[in-house]
Amino acid sequence: MGSMNEVARLAGVSIATVSRVLNNNGNVNEATRVKILKAIKELKYQPSRVAKRLRSKGVSSNLFGVLVPDIENPFYVDVLRGIEELAYKNNSAIIMCNYGQDERKEKFYLEILQSESIDGLIAAPAHEDDVLLKKMVTDGLPVVCVDRGLSGIDVDVVLVDNAAGAFNAVDYLAKSGYRRIAYISGMPGIPSSLLREKGYRDALAANQIPFDNRLVKFGNSKHHSGVVLCRELLEMENPPDAIFTGNNLITLGALETINAMKLRIPEDVAILGFDDMYWANSLNPSLSAVRQPAYEIGKRAVELLIQRIQDPERSCIQMALNTELMKRGSA
Amino acid sequence: MGSMNEVARLAGVSIATVSRVLNNNGNVNEATRVKILKAIKELKYQPSRVAKRLRSKGVSSNLFGVLVPDIENPFYVDVLRGIEELAYKNNSAIIMCNYGQDERKEKFYLEILQSESIDGLIAAPAHEDDVLLKKMVTDGLPVVCVDRGLSGIDVDVVLVDNAAGAFNAVDYLAKSGYRRIAYISGMPGIPSSLLREKGYRDALAANQIPFDNRLVKFGNSKHHSGVVLCRELLEMENPPDAIFTGNNLITLGALETINAMKLRIPEDVAILGFDDMYWANSLNPSLSAVRQPAYEIGKRAVELLIQRIQDPERSCIQMALNTELMKRGSA
DNA sequence: TTTTAACGTGAAATCGTTTACATTGCGTTG
DNA sequence: CAACGCAATGTAAACGATTTCACGTTAAAA
Fold it and tell me: Tell me, which fold does domain B4-47 have in CATH?
């Protein structure tokens, strides 16, 4: 854990030369290189990323920030896994920031990330017009948004065609004969919720099913809101025969209620929602779902981020990946 | 985003004085303090955590490392949440390292963490005798282990009484009348697997059930091994009537097989295993499980870490939290 | 043989802090 | 009134790297 100074002293050269062999730039005589390498090994020297980052900010110091709304949601865990894996391949560490939909906390983390001089940031912002994040983008920090974009500003985005995914799902329900299809939305206001609702409404219209606003409920994207909103729906005098859920936490919550009410799936009520889970087959019946390629979203985001770090001028990319309707037992 | 220099210049003082007001140490005249505060506000100054960390290493620079084996496992996600939440309260960011049971990757991350001059580390090491991690501990890095300890060395540990948890679970199965109780273990060799197996065997003995080594299978703690090992068990000529699983991923895998084989739970085969999940009630039937207070493990670990950072000499604490047997529908 | 270029190296500035030490001025005290 | 303590502030070194510039040496080109 010595410093460059100690290495230099031991090898009998200056720190500049040590730096040169470490970074493989500049010319250095083979003999001295060997001497220095030996000294490095002997001292178990490891360069301080902190010092490096301080000295040359903006240059790659191999530290990314990741800002996610809710790590309890398996979708974001998968995104995170994709990010982590590719960051690792790129010799980078990540500072993980989980803001739990709390804007104060988001702000806190954004400030920290800035102050940590990260190379770049992958973020799922709380809002489309997150002022602080926007400012960081315009100030030149490389940023890639995932799952949600940023309005009125050019920024790289990786997400999914939410409207199409929802449309296909609800269309499938309709084609399967369901007529009273409910929608339990996640956080109202965030783009994905809006677009999924649009897909839902369009699919109803396409199948000549009248829209009934008593059949759509708005929650907060958490497990608990799935539980209670599903109950509200199923206790109506004329309950839905199928439920389309806005995300996986809500799905799980709804499932809990359905089981508690001892209803059969899909005979009494079918269920299908956004976000597949690797254990969808562990459920009984197995769970149908709209699959987002979460892991891939994470990977792509890192790719874009690295590109942008290398070339801050390249024009922004909006990458929309496809969803896949996983037809299984629950709908 | 100016530097202390700019603040100092604008306020007409030296950087030392600025530092003093920022850190609230040393004496500074009220009038100058106000001047400086105004300059800070005006320049939107934010101190560089990087510079601070470089200058004063070992002193609190509010950055922790977290090293987990598998972020896909909801248990570690919960631990992580606990850590994150408390770290946040402590104004700290965390570098998340997910080594996926890969020792090369673990080594890579440990080196990075060292090189990032973190204040302290919370880790679930790959082995009980993880040499690199041990060396970091003896070198003076504040470390708290979670879920798994480190052998032959004094270090703070937060975990759960695995043997007791397993014993209670299997004892409960036995008392419920099950006689052929299988065990699907996670990664062999890691302490938690060993202790859970011990609890399993002790419970069998306590209930006069002969141990049958064909009923214990060893996997790798992942979903897939639950799937295949469960199938092996259920296709025996004399299959088990209950399965005790070593962790939640295995449970989920086993569930998948049981469903695929169209067996009824718990009539044909009961299932109960380690690690509760917040959506245990979303399963049909609801899943019985040994609950580890994962979130609390994370919180406690941060508490211990902060204590150790403040007082590197305090003697080590081994904290064993209690498990809780969640009796639900599956066993 | 002289000019030029390339090579190999070191000195020193720099990044943005913290902090030990020095300095100044002023009120107390013997 | 000299000596002292203390409050308020500044100076400069350090943390550990990168990088620019300069300098000497040697080989190639003219």
Answer: 434 Repressor (Amino-terminal Domain) (1.10.260)
* Model pLDDT for residues A38-48, shown as the tens digit of each residue: 999 999 999 99
Point out the residue nearest to C12 (C-alpha to C1').
A16
**Chain B residues 42 to 101 with C-beta below 7 Å from nucleic strand C:** 45-48, 51-52, 54-56, 59
How distant is C1' of C3 from CA of A14, in Å? 31
What are the residues whose beta carbons fall under 8 Å from the beta carbon of A102, sequence distance 6 or more? none
Is residue A60 very low, low, confident or very high in pLDDT (cuts 50, 70, 90)?
Answer: confident
Give residue B37's pLDDT band: very low, low, confident or very high (50, 70, 90): very high
Q: Which of A47, A113, A278 sits opposite B223 (nearest CB)?
A: A278
Distant-in-sequence, close-in-space partners of B24: CB < 8 Å, separation ≥ 6:
none
pLDDT interval class at A58 (50, 70, 90): low
DSSP string, A126-139: SSTT-HHHHHHHHT
A17 CB and strand C closer than 7 A: yes
Predicted confidence band of residue B122 (pLDDT cuts 50, 70, 90): very high
Q: What is the pLDDT of residues A82-107, one digit of tens each?
A: 999 999 999 999 999 999 989 999 99
Chain C bases closer than 7 angstroms to a protein Cβ: 7-12, 14-20
Burial B96-123 (b: 16+ CB within 10 A, else e): bbbbbeeeebbbbbbebbbbbbbbbbbb
Residue A34 approaches strand C within 7 Å at CB:
no
Pick the CATH number of B162-291 from 3.40.50.2300, 3.90.209.20, 1.10.3370.10, 3.30.56.10: 3.40.50.2300
Question: Do B110 and B137 meet the contact criterion of CB atoms below 8 Å apart?
Answer: no
Read off the pLDDT of each residue in B156-167 and give the average, rounded to a whole number.
98
Instruction: Give the residue from chain B lying closest to A254, CA to CA.
Output: B282
Give me the mean pLDDT over the A241-245 stretch. Answer: 98
Which residue in B has a C-alpha nearest to residue A115's C-alpha? B48
Q: Is the CB of A28 within 7 Å of strand C? A: yes
Nearest chain B residue to A89 by CA distance is B105
3-state secondary structure of B272: strand
